[in-house]
Amino acid sequence: MKSIFKLLTLSALLVSTGNMAQAQSGNGTPGLKGKINGQVHRTDNKPVEFATVTLLKAKDSSLVKGAIAGVDGKYEFEGIREGRYLVAAVNMGMKKGYSQPFTVNGSPVKVPAITLEETSRNLKEVNVTAKRPFIEQKADKMVVNVENSIVAAGGTALEVLQQSPGIQVDKDDNISMRGKNGVIIMIDGKVTNMSPQDVAMLLKNMPSSNIDQIELIANPSAKYDAAGNAGIINIKLKKNSNYGANGSVNAGFIQGKLPKANGGLNLNYRNKKVNVYGSYNYNYNRNFEDLSIYRDNLEKSGRITFDQNTYIDKKNQYHGGKFGADYFINNNHTLGVMVNLATSSWKGAGNSTTWIGSGEAIDSSLHTVSDNYNTWDRQSYNVNYKGKLDTAGKELNIDLDYSRNSEDQGSRLYSAYMDATGKQYWGGDTTRSLQPSVINIKTVKIDYTHPLKKEAKIEAGIKLSFVDSDNNSRFDSLKRSQWEYDANRSNYFIYKENVNAAYINFSKQFKKIGVQAGLRAEHTNVEGNSVTLKQVNDTSYLNFFPSVFFSYAANKNNQWGISYSRRLQRPSYDDLNPFEFFLDRYTKAGGNPNLRPQYSHNFDLTHTFKSFLTTAIGYSRTSDMLSRILEPGVDPVTGDTTIIVYKYMNVAKKDNINLNVSAPVPVTKWWRTFTTVSVFYNAFETTVNGELIKRASGGFFGQTQHTFTFKKGYSAEASFFFVSPQISQEGLFRMNAMYAFNLGLQKQVLDKKGTIRLNVNDLFNTQRFSGTYNVNNRQVRLGTRWDSRQLRLSFTYRFGNSNVKEARNRKTGLEDEQSRVK
Prior knowledge:
- It is a single chain.
- The chain is 6% helix and 64% strand.
- By secondary structure, the protein is mainly beta.
């Protein structure tokens, strides 16, 4: 309290002294008198309440007059004689700030806003009692204030994210929001531009103590790419200005039925002018897929059943490296470069048996052995400029990007029939496929921010992207000990795409109401050329994507938000490619060069009660929805109609209504819980082979997480999730219920710089998928299992100066395009 008293006393003295100085200066020669006004704000553009403001002579910085800014950070000086002046502002716990010199000549003077930065000085005997609420509803997003909340105690960024309203993380660390996949993850406003597995690894290695806020943007504004329907999660890290070096190293071992391992190293060095950073991650994943498909076909020749079981042993190795540097030209201008390199190799050995019969008796069986492989390399390069153009808050951001993705995939398939007794073989056949592809992406992106008066601003920008994809799919058959080219299955496919986009976005904050509105325009040029089939699809289209957001803080206990946006999702480049992947002669997956983007209208209404209970109601209508569908196929060589093809198609439309409720509940000081519940209704309508298909169902998702904190650095966690029967978006299957129970134990070691974790995922081995699908006189039952029950042991150690500011995780210009490379 002494510090506060001293500051208030000093402020009063400055005001009175300034008045005396002005009165004394008034004894001189009379002249024109003018008025001066302005505002003091923080680095986040929020006002500095009751800042001490002084008017100084520009010539010698002598005091002319003093004032105290209001709660809105605004100040005013009246009756000021003509001359050259400058304004200084200060507040407790913040560095002193100055305006540029200006001239008073009788007319009112508007001084550009003065920005004050936080200082690192510790003020003794000051008790800060005001805290930000755990959850805040803004005009265009929901904000989870992690610091000082019950979800921030220990753990990792991924664990904190799992406890945020409406967020789900599945068995493969894929992150979804309000039941929708394809969420874009950002850190400090910059897209991570990483695979879901890499993002999960990054968040697992990031201490939750580094996080300030998590922004949940269910309906992104016009500023963001129109692609993506699931929304954006922006993780904002704490800021500091310390220099030095830091890093972390991690290693983990996982044992299910098959072993897995991972490890990584992160390094960061920062001084006044340069920030250099780098990371390396390795992952070895051996997994399996146990797939069963039962088909009951009603053909013209009669009833035919196929009872298929396929087991695939999968081995994958991944190496990823990220390297970059930022050069701080001065406090307002930064130039950066960044390089991302990654390589992956995958092998899958499959063994399949299909029993064929009439439904009452088995006539024969098909045995298939497959050997599949895939190698993938990615290189991406980014050059970035970020500049603050003036003290008023004008900003310019420029990104130049180039990415090259090369893939070599192939397989060898051997099939043979056996008679009903399982003894005699006939009809042996061996085929192979070679399917290389190269995807090049180039983008240019420019963003500009222009602040206006009274807490308003305009954002505008442009983006140009150029994509070319070269894919050569070759199939050969082994005949008389020689490989012969199979022209019926082979295809050379070239895809080119150019998207030119521009947007403008306006936002303003009134006393209790926040408003944001924007419009994005995207002109797309696409050419798909099947060289083998001599077919060219050349299209060009212009789309507009509006977005509107409102927030209303009714009182301290109730916050409301309502939003609308139009979005699209383009198909991945692989899904546009007519490549085919065979499980056996009767089952294959393929691409579809005729795919169109899907479009959606999204509405959301949210309510937050006492920063505790969050309720969200949403509705979306999607046209031309992209979904994998089982479609009856025809063998181009034999004319066999019993084949099924699993490929992406444009489902005619989808309607979704959802209700999400989530709440953190502190049971005791050592036991906290977080529970989220989603109830939704999905309706699908499409046409497959001329047959109209309508599917609709309600669904339920529930997850509860319990964290227990003990003495001596120990903590434990138990979680359970349940997914009800429903119509799945992927494949339109009538899926059965799925659930899993997880347990974990954690210990902090080495002066809290190290963390050891031991946990069991899917303790009772219940996580599996099963469902049914009926179309065109075909009934399909599908079931699949994987290595879901796992014992995981991991160790993370953080070293160096933990207060060094994080490297800029900036957004590059090719995230939307890169996300479509599978």
